[in-house]
Amino acid sequence: MTDVAGLRVGNAQDERLRSGATVLVGERPFVAAVHVMGGAPGTRETDLLAPDRLVQEVDALVLSGGSAFGLDAASGVADGLRAMGRGYAVGDQRVPIVPGAILFDLLNGGRKDWTVNPYKALGLTALRAAAADFALGSVGAGTGATTGNLKGGLGSASAVLDNGITVGALVAVNALGQATVDDGPAFWAAPWELAAEFGGRGVARAFAPAAEPAPGKRMGEATTIAIVATDAVLTQAQALRMATAAQDGMARALVPSHTPFDGDLVFAAATGAKPLPDPATDAYLLGHAAACCLARAIARAVWLATPKPGDLQPAWVTRFG
Questions:
Q1: Within a domain: residue 320?
Q2: Number of domains forming the structure of the chain
Q3: What pLDDT, in 10s, does the model give residues 258-299?
Q4: Radius of gyration of the chain (CA)
Q5: How far apart, in whole angstroms, are the C-alpha atoms of residue 97 and residue 100?
Q6: Selection from 212, 226, 218, 313 nearest residue 261 by Cα
Q7: Domain presence at residue 319
Q8: From CA 40, how far away is CA 61, in angstroms rounded?
Q9: Rounded CA gap, 39 and 76, in Å?
Q10: How many angstroms separate the first and last alpha carbons of the chain?
Q11: Residue 72 lies in a domain
């Protein structure tokens, strides 16, 4: 994700809690949009991301565990940004604009017996940790994530188009469905893999096209939340189209996806550093690249998940080496 110049990512997690938060923040405010495909989303400040709203740029985007409690991670980020003097100017006040989305990880074996909601502090810690280099796998919002058959996690991938525009994806994978085909090690996203970035196992030799795996989690315990970003100049409407196209990447990498029990959601971010050489053709290419990057990032999230004591599901590396 941070191959998109001007963006930084920060993670914070609590191993006892088995949950965490991830923050995307820019050097300056950036255009953002959101597209929701799942039937059970949990969000904060997403209504203002519609193209007809007053505020067209945001200061940060937050992905968090914790279900509805995790929405408070964005409050910690907003507090931290305000202390930095950042935010939408209203008179002599600054109001940081920090949309967020959450996934459900309350039944993953971690201790959830808090008396004070921990996610506000996790959000602030993640903001303070934001950097160009950041960890993937069982960290941040992906700390306690699971899928239908394996541990989930936090993943990222990027691509540079021939026109010089960069696209990146960041995702916390906590899906009802599976990232791998049947009971084997191959990933659904294998056709889009670059340089063996998630093991180079190739495409599964055979699978039943009409058979979808039965849910491996209880209903309501899912959601995959993602951000796709670019350094291109985009309007909010164009950013929304990129987020919409990126949902194809989720469908390529997770089977099934976008179920009534997932809150599947994709944010889009555009830093505006480079104009699109050909607005019509390049907008098409951005959507395709965002979908490919998101599919790759989902597979990487599962591939990089690490085993920990008390896991309720095996990590990919534990099962397949």
A1: no
A2: 1
A3: 988 888 999 999 999 999 988 888 888 999 999 999 999 999
A4: 18
A5: 10
A6: 218
A7: no
A8: 19
A9: 27
A10: 26
A11: yes
